[in-house]
Design goal:
Keywords: Membrane, Transmembrane, Transmembrane helix. InterPro entries: DUF3267. It comes from Schinkia azotoformans LMG 9581. The protein is α+β, with helices and mostly antiparallel strands. Helices cover about 60% and strands about 15% of the residues. It has one domain. The strands form two sheets. The chain has a four-stranded antiparallel sheet with strand order 1-6-5-4. A two-stranded antiparallel sheet has the order 2-3. The protein starts with a strand and ends in a 5-residue tail after the last strand.
């Protein structure tokens, strides 16, 4: 096996730059979701009844986003551990540990899973229940902001050879290909 590419976005782009880009994408996503919905449903009165439920859902977005990443591997029978560490008092850090390498296609599905399982249902919910579109728009925008690194990884992974394997290390992942010897 040869390493086709090693990807470590923290090292390549920097954590602060990723956070700023994620925040800007989150803000743009909220504007692009909320403004058209508010124009379409301008006669709808927004309902603020479930503020506590909304706050609980906001707190749960990050763990749900992580579980959505792990779900495709769990479905295929891979063993995965989700670890929580507390480097700060306020924000816990969630990490996924893979025991085995994943195929390129399974990793692509893993990167797409939060969008398909969180953002799309939230957008559908905002159409069905427009009186809660402000809550749903914020939740969908936060998930889209969390997906910025997924999109970057996805763009790299799509360019990888079709039969490649993705192996995880502590801070990065390697895209491995079979080397054919003559």
């Amino acid at each position: 096996m040869n390493c086709w590419k090693t990807i470590n976005l923290s090292r390549d782009l920097g954590n602060q730059r990723l956070m700023v880009v994620s925040f800007l994408v989150m803000l743009a996503a909220f504007i692009m979701i909320y403004v058209p919905l508010s124009i379409i449903y301008e006669s709808i009165h927004l309902n603020d009844d479930y503020l506590y439920l909304f706050i609980i859902c906001l707190i749960l977005i990050i763990p749900m986003h992580l579980i959505c990443h792990a779900l495709p591997a769990w479905i295929t029978g891979q063993r995965i551990k989700i670890k929580i560490s507390f480097k700060s008092v306020i924000f816990p850090i969630f990490n996924i540990e893979y025991n085995h390498s994943l195929t390129r296609n399974l990793k692509i599905v893993s990167f797409l899973a939060p969008t398909l399982l969180i953002t799309c249902p939230l957008l559908f919910f905002s159409i069905i229940y427009p009186q809660y579109m402000h809550y749903v728009s914020i939740g969908a925008a936060i998930n889209i902001g969390l997906s910025v690194t997924d999109i970057i990884y996805l763009m790299i992974l799509i360019k990888a050879p079709k039969k490649s394997i993705v192996e995880h290390t502590k801070y990065s992942f390697d895209i491995l290909i079979h080397h054919k010897s003559n």
